[in-house]
Write a structure and sequence with these properties.
By secondary structure, this protein is mainly alpha-helical. It contains 28 helices and 11 strands.
Length: 819
């Protein structure tokens, strides 16, 4: 009995007046395949096959959607259909020994078995994860798959579907992205690409195609390595996004999960590709930092076992001088992958070393005038138009069509050949009624394509900030931002990323645009003020003396600022590192079954660090207090050493035990946690808050009680010691609060975010006070895009333009502080 897809296909074919043979001839899908689909003998066809059939049937949008939905719909009885059927190879493409399966069964270049033999049914294959309920973000199945790879597939699918909607890729329909096979100089030997044995004859594959065919094109490449080349703004990132979604929709459980990585942030001289992939995967999905079956994290296990298909976007964004080692590192692996790049940068790297081994390459082509005529008129507002048939883009399209072919293209015709510039023109002129696109034809004003591109980039920010958004993504009211200030803040962010040589706008690295000395100084000063204020308030509340409270607050605040500032410098600044978001949370009710940290290392590190800090603190405080009553240097030094010994032992034990307790309470985050910047920030804020609730009472109690014990133990051996229970309690309270604040502000990513990004950068005018709201606002307006746990600018070209504008403005505006 025919399945749902077969019934829909037969009905639509009959309505089109075509026989099975006629449809087969037009679509290049065999009659046997079409007959098998309509009778239900073949289920779950390849999406490329469905798209070919839909194209040749000339379906309307609603009919096309019905056919595609039927192709991926799960059976009503809960069983999943078999793996997608392979497409028949064109008869003009001869089969070789590589087309034979090692077991003796015939297979197409993708490795999928065929059933061309008489009476041979299709071999059973793993079910497609696209049909697993957890892979569908709209599924109501309450039981997600237990396999980490399948959970990742569901998370990636949901994320990029939301991102495609946010980027308005389908509004009103995707701009056509087409490609052709790249020049042979940028492609490896076809025998290597086809995985042919020695002496076999290699025939090049015809890889020409368009946006909806990218997953099928990739599967036709036996080596599973593809390079996508295209000039700036040609649609490489959108193609990568569409590849991931299409591949996931038709993916079998034995196939790796495609994940997009912004390779521009990779430094191949400091970290291997696999380690970097695992780190990036953990950054976007902190739950995958949990231990797998072995000693490695789940992320590392997925990468090492080949269950991740890296889609490496932005090879051209790798820093100058690193592209050659990056290409060499890629060639040192056999990982299946997709790599995108601008042609010039990739060709330069190839000239220095070699092509990407076993990789086919395609080159994106320019948009045509017919593409513009089909797209731009449908992006304008229809209501209120006097003549419904008239369109603001008609004069522009007419002028471009009438341009003599024997003359060079006009600046506008040249600029509108890339999807990026078409999208900018659409935003500025289609979505804004008072802007006339005919002005773009002014060759005196726009004498070159570069001037016209700068005009579009200049006007993009003012245009998208003209209107007030209804609300933030978190559901709160939206404050709105002035376009000029927004340009200034975005310019700083773009300049910040240029300095860091990365496209990733990570909230925990926003303060890294400052000089290292500035970061350390700001952290130390703010920490000194905070702890001094806490100490002074508690001292005044207990003793009621203003002078004593001010003196104590000054000494404690200064020492805490110096000590924690030194710890921050030693931990991060001196090593050129930054505090990274925590991949764990604290579980207070019970000891978790699988912790990332062991108690031993925490106990040793905490004890040594606390002892050093306590000795320095006690030595200085002891000398300062003694100096107030005597000027005898020997007595001052003796008291300082004794206090240093007491405080060192107490603080060492307290810090070691507190660190040990924090380690015991840590448990990995949920595997589906933190897939966007705000959720990751919120998760880390919650973790730090819980750490403070554990640190303050534990540390304070141990210090308060331990100080009395230490005095009793050392009594007489170092001289008479005077210590009261009130002094012990006061020390415990101040130490608990001060230690917790110092730890949070100097040694956690959220603390550094609070000090530098939420206080210092807004205070100096570089960023707004509502940083998170501003970033979300820019994302909703289409200036930024989300790439997992970080933001990126919509396009590298926009980032470069804003950074250049910021540097020019910094030379003339005094309010912009130097970095």
């Amino acid at each position: 009995m025919a399945g749902e897809f077969g019934e829909v296909l037969r009905r639509l074919r009959t309505a089109a007046g075509l026989t099975q043979e006629e449809l087969a001839e037009r679509s290049e899908v065999s009659v046997r395949t079409i007959r098998g689909l309509e009778t239900g003998k073949r289920t779950n066809p390849r999406m490329t096959t469905v798209q070919r059939l839909a194209k040749e049937l000339a379906l309307r949008p609603r009919e096309r959607e019905e056919l595609l939905r039927a192709a991926v719909r799960r059976d009503q009885d809960g069983e999943q259909p078999a793996e997608p059927e392979p497409e028949p190879e064109p008869e003009s493409e001869p089969r070789t020994e590589a087309d034979a399966d090692p077991t003796g069964a015939d297979a197409d270049p993708t490795g999928a078995p065929t059933d061309d033999g008489p009476g041979d049914p299709p071999a059973p294959n793993p079910p497609s994860t696209a049909l697993h309920p957890a892979a569908d973000p709209h599924s109501s199945d309450p039981h997600p798959p237990s396999d980490p790879a399948e959970q990742l597939a569901a998370l990636v699918t949901a994320r990029w579907q939301r991102e495609e909607e946010q980027r308005q890729v389908q509004d009103p329909f995707p701009l056509p992205v087409r490609w052709e096979t790249a020049p042979e100089a940028l492609t490896d030997h076809w025998a290597n690409i086809l995985r042919l044995p020695a002496q076999a004859t290699a025939h090049p594959l015809d890889l020409d195609g368009e946006l909806g065919e990218i997953a099928g094109t990739y599967r036709r490449i036996p080596s599973r390595r593809l390079v996508v080349l295209g000039r700036s703004g040609s649609g490489k990132t959108i193609l990568a996004l569409r590849f991931v979604l299409d591949h996931l929709r038709t993916r079998g459980t034995s196939e790796p999960v495609p994940v997009i990585f912004s390779i521009g942030a990779w430094n191949p001289t400091t970290i291997t590709l696999r380690d970097w992939l695992a780190a990036q995967l953990t950054r976007d999905h902190p739950g995958y930092a949990a231990r797998g079956r072995g000693r490695e994290s789940l992320a590392a296990e997925l990468v090492e076992s080949g269950r991740i298909l890296p889609v490496l976007d932005g090879f051209d964004e790798i820093a100058d001088g690193l592209r050659r080692p990056a290409l060499e590192a890629l060639n040192a692996t056999t990982l299946p992958l997709v790599l995108t790049s601008r042609p010039a940068e990739y060709a330069a790297a190839v000239a220095e070393t070699d092509v990407l081994t076993a990789a086919a390459a395609i080159r994106l082509t320019d948009l045509t005038l017919d593409d513009l005529a089909a797209y731009l008129p449908r992006t304008t507002r229809k209501p209120g138009r006097e003549d419904p048939d008239a369109n603001a883009w008609d004069p522009v399209l007419t002028a471009l069509r009438e341009q003599p072919r024997d003359r060079p293209d006009s600046p506008l015709a040249t600029v509108l050949k890339t999807p990026l510039m078409v999208a900018l023109a659409r935003t500025i002129y289609s979505d804004t009624p008072d802007h006339d696109p005919a002005s773009l034809l002014d060759t005196e004003r726009f004498g070159s394509p570069e001037k016209l591109e700068d005009h579009l980039l200049d006007n993009f920010i003012p245009t998208v900030y003209r209107h007030r958004l209804h609300g933030s993504s978190s559901g709160g009211s939206h404050p709105g931002f002035d376009a000029d200030r927004a340009r200034h803040w975005l310019g700083y962010l773009a300049h910040h990323l240029t300095g860091l040589r990365t496209p990733d706008l990570a909230w925990w690295r926003l303060g890294n645009g400052l000089r290292r000395s500035t970061r350390t100084l700001v952290t130390a000063v703010l920490l000194a003020l905070t702890i001094g204020l806490v100490d002074g308030a508690i001292s005044f509340g207990v003793n009621g003396r203003v002078t004593g409270a001010l003196l104590d607050a000054s000494v404690v605040g200064l020492l805490a600022g110096l000590m924690f500032g030194f710890v921050h410098w030693l931990t991060y600044t001196a090593k050129g590192k930054q505090a990274a978001p925590s991949a764990v949370r604290l579980q207070l009710r019970r000891r978790p079954g699988a912790t990332v940290w062991t108690a031993g290392p925490r106990l040793v590190i905490g004890t040594l660090g606390g002892a050093v800090f306590g000795f320095a603190y006690g030595f200085v405080v002891g000398m300062v207090i003694t100096y107030a009553v005597t000027s005898d240097l020997s007595i001052i030094v003796h008291v300082g050493l004794v206090d240093g010994l007491v405080y060192g032992s107490v603080f060492g034990v307290a810090t070691g035990l507190t660190f040990c307790l924090l380690g015991l309470l840590e448990t990995p985050l949920d595997i589906d946690s933190a897939v966007n910047p705000r959720s990751l920030l919120t998760t880390n804020r919650g973790t730090v808050t819980t750490q403070l609730l554990v640190w303050a009472p534990t540390f304070g109690a141990v210090v308060g009680f331990g100080s009395g014990v230490a005095v009793d133990v050392l009594q007489g051996s170092v001289g008479p010691l005077v210590w009261t229970s009130e002094a012990a309690a006061l020390l415990g309270v101040i130490s608990g609060l001060g230690g917790a604040i110092g730890y949070a502000l100097t040694l956690t990513a959220w603390g550094q975010w609070l000090v530098l990004t939420r206080i210092w950068l807004p205070l100096t005018g570089r960023l707004p006070w509502a940083v998170v709201t501003f970033l979300e606002d820019a994302y909703q307006r289409g200036v930024l895009r989300q790439a997992g746990a970080v933001y990126q600018f919509r396009h590298a070209r926009l980032q470069q333009h804003l950074a250049r504008h910021h540097r020019r403005a910094a030379l003339h505006d005094d309010f912009i502080a130097p970095l």
